[in-house]
Amino acid sequence: MSSDSHPYSDAVLLREARAEDAGILTRLFLDSRAAALPYLPRVHSDEATLGWMTHVVLPGTDVWVAEVREDGRAAEPVGFVSVDGDELEHLYLRPDSLRQGIGTQLLAKARERSPQGLALYTFQRNSGARAFYERHGFTAVGFDDGSRNEENEPDVRYRWSPAG
Q1: Are 102 and 1 in contact, with CB atoms under 8 Å apart?
Q2: Cβ-count burial of 52 within 10 angstroms (0-12 exposed, 13-18 middle, 19+ buried)?
Q3: Domains of the chain: residue spans and CATH
Q4: Cα–Cα dist 159/164, whole Å
Q5: pLDDT, the chain, mean
Q6: CB-based contacts of 38-41 (< 8 A; 24+ apart in sequence)
């Protein structure tokens, strides 16, 4: 991809998440969900979400942060990916960082970490995420009525394998 089609492509740095990233990753998670999924009920407070990020996501999964440097300023986190074995648990971007190649770079990191294949859930109504994963070779393998998630929102199971 050229930097013309994705202006941040060359300025994106991926790094392993650190414990002190919990606050910014929580904010990215909450802001991304609010922008992309405004119909979802909020089932946890911001404080509870921070606790989950601090005590569950960061210590329990392989988390990578995407940072962007612009105009000599300090690197700013704009997204993250979380992988647990062959499960892509989370891939979230700051709402103003969509369609700039950052999600693709985070997904490439997830594939690097799980080269045998990946699986994930996303909400059926999340057409943006579904299109993204399908563009990147994921196939829908199952649909659920929402009884398996806290939001009670129907979801879809996707799988990707390097063999296609």
Answers
A1: no
A2: middle
A3: 9-160 (3.40.630.30)
A4: 10
A5: 91
A6: 39/125, 39/153, 40/123, 40/151, 40/153, 41/151, 41/152
d(CA 17, CA 15): 6
Q: In 10 A of CB 112, how many CB atoms?
A: 11
Buried b (16+ CB within 10 A) or exposed e, 26-51: bbbbbebbeebbeebeeeeeeeebbe
C-alpha–C-alpha distance, residues 82 and 110, integer Å:
8
In this prediction, residue 69 has a pLDDT band, given cuts at 50, 70 and 90, of confident
Which pLDDT band, with edges at 50, 70 and 90, does 74 fall under? confident
Q: How far apart are CA 139 and CA 119, in angstroms?
A: 9
